[in-house]
Design goal:
Elements lengths: L1 H8 L23 E3 L1 E7 L10 E12 L3 E4 L1 E5 L10 E14 L2 E14 L11 E4 L9 E5 L3 E5 L1 E3 L15 H4 L3 E3 L5 H6 L2
Antiparallel strand pairs: 1-6, 2-3, 3-4, 5-6, 5-10, 6-7, 7-8, 7-9, 8-12, 11-12
């Protein structure tokens, strides 16, 4: 979180957060407010519903959903605003939404786990991009804090099934942990089709 604050307060410093020493980062020891969901509003001109093509969807990150288990949705995160389609976006799984105030400024954030793209183009057979959970060089999950303004909208991932039998004990809440790679489902709706091509 201190590295996130450093990035927010020093937007022209383009170092990776892992390169910034904690001693150089602001200290924070006040309240943090945790939320189970966030609302994404985005412009969808191809959809006739809504005012002027605006759409709203909820992105959830909660410890218990319908008494079945946790729900940690995946999202498209804008990482390269100059590019288009999936080259402008990355996929992440939201582990928690939270907000806090620092020097009178409100920061609305998400703790995420990054997914890495497999290859630099969509799969030839399905037309869908493939991703896998991201890990740091020390083999720990690649987690970070992002501002929620960088979240474009929710993403739907389909596991890439192997040749082995799948356990009947896997529940939907386990699927992101039970598989090693996923398709970014651009066929889930026409908004996803427009941005995930």
């Amino acid at each position: 979180m201190r590295q996130f604050l450093f990035e927010q307060l020093n937007p022209n410093d383009h170092r990776d957060a892992s390169e910034i020493l904690l001693a150089a980062c602001p200290h924070y020891d006040s309240r943090i407010y945790v939320f189970n969901s966030a609302c994404a509003r985005f412009y969808a001109p191809s959809d006739l519903s809504g005012i002027g093509g605006m759409q709203t969807e909820f992105i959830r990150s909660m410890p218990l959903w319908r008494k079945e288990g946790p729900q940690k949705d995946c999202v498209f995160v804008t990482t390269n605003p100059e590019a288009t389609g999936m080259r402008a976006l990355d996929i992440a799984r939201v582990l928690s939404f939270f907000s806090f105030r620092y020097q009178s400024e409100l920061y609305e954030c998400a703790i995420i786990q990054w997914f890495d793209k497999i290859g630099d183009a969509p799969d030839e057979d399905t037309g869908m991009w493939m991703v896998c959970p991201g890990y740091l060089p020390n083999h720990t999950p690649h987690l970070t804090i992002i501002h929620i303004d960088t979240i474009h909208r929710s993403a739907h991932l389909i596991p890439i099934y192997g040749t082995n039998a799948i356990s009947h004990n896997i529940k939907p809440c386990h699927s992101y942990d039970a598989f090693r790679a996923f398709y970014v489902n651009k066929y889930v709706d026409h908004h996803a089709f427009e941005i995930a091509s």
